[in-house]
Amino acid sequence: MDLSSAIDFVLQHAQVINFSGSIIFGLWSMINFLYYNHVDKKRRSGYLEIGEEIVDIPPTKLEYLILVSGFAQAIAGITCAVFAVLKQLDDIQISYSWFIAIGWIFQSLTVLISTSPVSIAPRYFIYLYLLEIFNQLLICVKSNSDMLVANQVLLGFNILLFVLQIINPVKNAEYLSKHLHNGRTPSIEDLASPLSFVTFAWVEPLLLLGTQKHLEEEDLPSLSKRDEMNYIITNWKRFRVNRKNSVIYDTIIFSLRYAVFQQLAAIISTILDFAKPFFINKLLNWIQQKKPEDSLMPGVYILLAMFLANCTRNVLYAHIYLNARHWGMQIRSVFIYEIFNKSLRRVAGATDKDKKSAKASHGRIVSLMSGDTNEIRYFITFIHTLIIDMPITITLSVLGLWYLMGPPAFAGLFVILITGPLSALIMKRLYKIMKVIRSFVDRRIQLTNEALQCVRIIKYLGWEPQFVERIVKAREDELNSRLKQVFTRMLLVIVEWGASVMVTFTSFMFYTVVAGHELDAATAFTSITLLSMISDALSDISQTVTQVLDIRVTIGRFNSFLEEEELDKYTDEHTNMPTETEIAIKNGEFTYRTAPSSEEESTFTLRNINIDFPSKKLTAIIGPTGAGKSSLLACLLGGN
């Protein structure tokens, strides 16, 4: 079915489509009204939650105009419904008019109850306006003369409301800046209008300011609330209550809405990628079949459609990466919190003689918090490429080549089967190198931290050369491993690039030489575009697989750290303690926890400890060096 056939089908069934749309419009408006009438106050659009306080946000002048237009639309809808009854139109038109009128009445009531004082209608009204604009356009095309003027009035109101909604900011930015942010600009992303948000126009003021001066901290707007660490961790702790799943699994569920949006948008944008070869084929076929007396408008329509599809794809891609940045920031914040929280509860490491049971060093913890969490955040940004882009691109490209060239198109795919095992061997080697690199990075960070923490002793004893030699040696080992990684990656890229070139060459050779087909312009240029898309996908496989292997190592390190043994929690075995004493130790014996293989070695032990800490009084722990003062405090704090 081509475009003209689809338009004819819509026009022929316009009445049924309009009636269905009016039912959806009316029911949706009614549900919105009922929801907003019972929803919690802080969930409504004109309120903002500041800590435990719910603050009213006054409306702007534009928001009052939206309200007036909404009431005018409701009155116009009722007028059309009454007019349809008086003119004794058919039942479908009467029902349609009443559904629309009822829908606008509920929308107006929703605007009134959604905020106090009155503020903007909910943002999803935009979709209702689009639905109603589509319905009214169909009616204006198919309507009789009696209802034409009324429908044109309704269409004008819908267009006006739609334009006002897409240019209206989310909240009163001037009020927020003055009263809630101490003069600092609120998050420009959160306050952007729908049109500004879609087109990224909200970034323009900051970019313009950056061209005029060096940006200072006070020039930057406030961070979006959803990116604030406190907001993320508060929701995370609330989400984790009574959940026994792994942190990795719960993190995915916790941020599922970001993942769903990214993958759905990636599906649409990947399909729009094929608008280019599709319209190229249509344009070249039209040029080949065009006669001198034919109109040029079909070609103009094809070019316009290709332009719009490409613009839509680019906007979607931009929002995919913006969403991915928010998603990655949320996951990174959760992981840093879990690592830090675990580091306070974990048992101290094993002795050097027990390497197998050795726990994470301070260097490894620092590496997990800085490097590994950033690796996860970076991988999240491009995860749609692995899950959506490459599979759909390769599948649709192969199907397109089959449609254009037939069986000869599959000749080039045998090249992939040949180079596949070789690529797998290289990837396996690359994975081993990455694990070695991570261990060298942990060792280098650990040595650097030791040198910084003990710098006074090192300077006093003159041990600088020895420590510098150890750090340099660790760095050289890391660089040598990274050099192996670079050469291995280069080999993988060469194999993947060579495979993509051979796929193109083999496909065209079998199509022209073996099958004996003539290669016309439409087939040639469309096939080249599709083969180029396959080549790009195959070339990205090496980088994507590298990221997957890297993230596999990272997740393994993260899980092994979280699975380390934790400290035993104290339990109060004495309920008859004196009221003036809150903390006490009776006949206590404490020793440092060691690895099982080291139990026979002597360790420092505090024995026969009896002490009371009076409530609301100062208690001092004094004694000579090595007497155990710090060890006693560690016992009180639950240290190991």
UniProtKB/TrEMBL annotation:
<feature type="transmembrane region" description="Helical">
    <location>
        <begin position="16"/>
        <end position="36"/>
    </location>
</feature>
<feature type="transmembrane region" description="Helical">
    <location>
        <begin position="247"/>
        <end position="272"/>
    </location>
</feature>
<dbReference type="InterPro" id="IPR050173">
    <property type="entry name" value="ABC_transporter_C-like"/>
</dbReference>
<feature type="domain" description="ABC transmembrane type-1">
    <location>
        <begin position="264"/>
        <end position="550"/>
    </location>
</feature>
<keyword id="KW-0067">ATP-binding</keyword>
<dbReference type="Pfam" id="PF13476">
    <property type="entry name" value="AAA_23"/>
</dbReference>
<feature type="transmembrane region" description="Helical">
    <location>
        <begin position="490"/>
        <end position="511"/>
    </location>
</feature>
<feature type="transmembrane region" description="Helical">
    <location>
        <begin position="98"/>
        <end position="118"/>
    </location>
</feature>
<dbReference type="GO" id="GO:0016887">
    <property type="term" value="F:ATP hydrolysis activity"/>
</dbReference>
<feature type="transmembrane region" description="Helical">
    <location>
        <begin position="64"/>
        <end position="86"/>
    </location>
</feature>
<protein>
    <recommendedName>
        <fullName>ABC transmembrane type-1 domain-containing protein</fullName>
    </recommendedName>
</protein>
<keyword id="KW-0813">Transport</keyword>
<dbReference type="InterPro" id="IPR027417">
    <property type="entry name" value="P-loop_NTPase"/>
</dbReference>
<keyword id="KW-0547">Nucleotide-binding</keyword>
<dbReference type="GO" id="GO:0140359">
    <property type="term" value="F:ABC-type transporter activity"/>
</dbReference>
<feature type="transmembrane region" description="Helical">
    <location>
        <begin position="300"/>
        <end position="322"/>
    </location>
</feature>
<dbReference type="GO" id="GO:0006302">
    <property type="term" value="P:double-strand break repair"/>
</dbReference>
<dbReference type="GO" id="GO:0016020">
    <property type="term" value="C:membrane"/>
</dbReference>
<keyword id="KW-0677">Repeat</keyword>
<feature type="transmembrane region" description="Helical">
    <location>
        <begin position="153"/>
        <end position="171"/>
    </location>
</feature>
<feature type="transmembrane region" description="Helical">
    <location>
        <begin position="124"/>
        <end position="141"/>
    </location>
</feature>
<keyword id="KW-0472">Membrane</keyword>
<keyword id="KW-1133">Transmembrane helix</keyword>
<dbReference type="GO" id="GO:0005524">
    <property type="term" value="F:ATP binding"/>
</dbReference>
<feature type="transmembrane region" description="Helical">
    <location>
        <begin position="378"/>
        <end position="403"/>
    </location>
</feature>
<dbReference type="InterPro" id="IPR036640">
    <property type="entry name" value="ABC1_TM_sf"/>
</dbReference>
<feature type="transmembrane region" description="Helical">
    <location>
        <begin position="409"/>
        <end position="427"/>
    </location>
</feature>
<dbReference type="InterPro" id="IPR011527">
    <property type="entry name" value="ABC1_TM_dom"/>
</dbReference>
<keyword id="KW-0812">Transmembrane</keyword>
<dbReference type="Pfam" id="PF00664">
    <property type="entry name" value="ABC_membrane"/>
</dbReference>
<dbReference type="InterPro" id="IPR038729">
    <property type="entry name" value="Rad50/SbcC_AAA"/>
</dbReference>
